[in-house]
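Module 6 notes. Inverse folding takes a fixed backbone as the condition and produces residue identities as the prediction. Think of it as a translation problem where the source language is geometry and the target language is the twenty amino acids. Below is one complete input and output pair. Work through it position by position during the lab.
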């Protein structure tokens, strides 16, 4: 039932949270893989709209100097 969650590792396990059992409908982190991709596209659009110096700062701090939002053709 919750196997389509982006954090699911099968057998009712979670790769995102440090819990021993999937919380299913009680989990506030539940998100399908498709929802995760849509949210990532939205975030990339916001990052791409920032001034270049701010984009560089964020890429250096959080993305090891890479700017995945600059390469992707995001449209939501």
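Target side of the pair, the amino acids:
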């Amino acid at each position: 039932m919750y196997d389509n969650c982006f954090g699911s590792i099968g057998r009712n396990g979670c790769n995102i949270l440090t819990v021993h059992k999937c919380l299913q409908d009680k989990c506030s982190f539940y998100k399908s893989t498709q929802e995760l991709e849509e949210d990532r596209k939205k975030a990339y659009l916001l990052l791409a709209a920032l001034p270049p110096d701010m984009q560089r700062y964020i890429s250096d701090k959080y993305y090891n100097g890479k700017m995945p939002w600059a390469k992707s053709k995001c449209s939501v």
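Reference fact for the lab report: Residues 34-75 form one domain.
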